[in-house]
Amino acid sequence: xxxxxxxxxxxxxxxxxxxxxxxxxxxxxxRLLARNPEKAQKLLxxxxxxxxxEVDNAAALRTALTGVDGVHISLKGGPTAADFxxxxxxxxxxxxxxxxxxxxxxxxxxxxxxVSTEKADTPESRAKFxxxxxxxxxxxxxxxxxxxxxMETLPMFVQGKNISLIGNQIHPLHxxxxxxYARMVSKSYQTEETLNRELYIxxxxxxxxxEAMKIYADHAGVKVxxxxxxxxxxxxxxxxxxxxxxxxxxxxxxENWGEDGSPDEANHLLGAPRVTLGEWIxxxxxxxxx
Length: 290
What we know:
Rossmann fold, three-stranded mixed sheet
């Protein structure tokens, strides 16, 4: 049992929620910043301290950051360039600066493997890169998690009886389960060796996006339906769908960039991910049936 309090910002999201739950299971006091505390309480259940506020409200951030030992940032920007900038850069910058003022022990941040100067070729990757740089420049101790693709994203590509394979995705990817990632984040708060490091979080197996979608499709009873990034962008423009246009840009980005970096340091410090894609699919589909 620990007396440490960790604030999770974005703790009701697909990747923030499992981190909040794992921290709580490991004995941390977990605080959340949420726009709708009642909704957050209903989603997560009892045992969490929930503060009302948004990330662009400095007063709310200062209140939520008072008296915490660490802050985990799990924000999702988009689909517009302005919103990526607001969430992935400016919010991270503000949180880091206030954390430094409050003498918070560390800030942890979820990022992506394709974030660097040379790979900052989209609004999202540029904002994430600037967010990382702002966190480092703040002076607060940090850990950045550069994650590969999450298994949990696969169902998001399903439309009806098809799963959309967007673009020419040739790069092998080490798919990671959110539960493994959450365990690693929580473990990082239990060792000083992870301070001021960028850690690559890669799952135990590598599949191209097409291969992963085929495995998912075979289990879920859907069909892989290829679509070019150009076609998705055109459809997004014709239907005024900002999400589709943003997705086309994202998937074009990942056509160009495969994984780099090594997961060895993260696996040594935090324990290697264990959940395979097949195991995750079976567990997920069993839950949906039951």
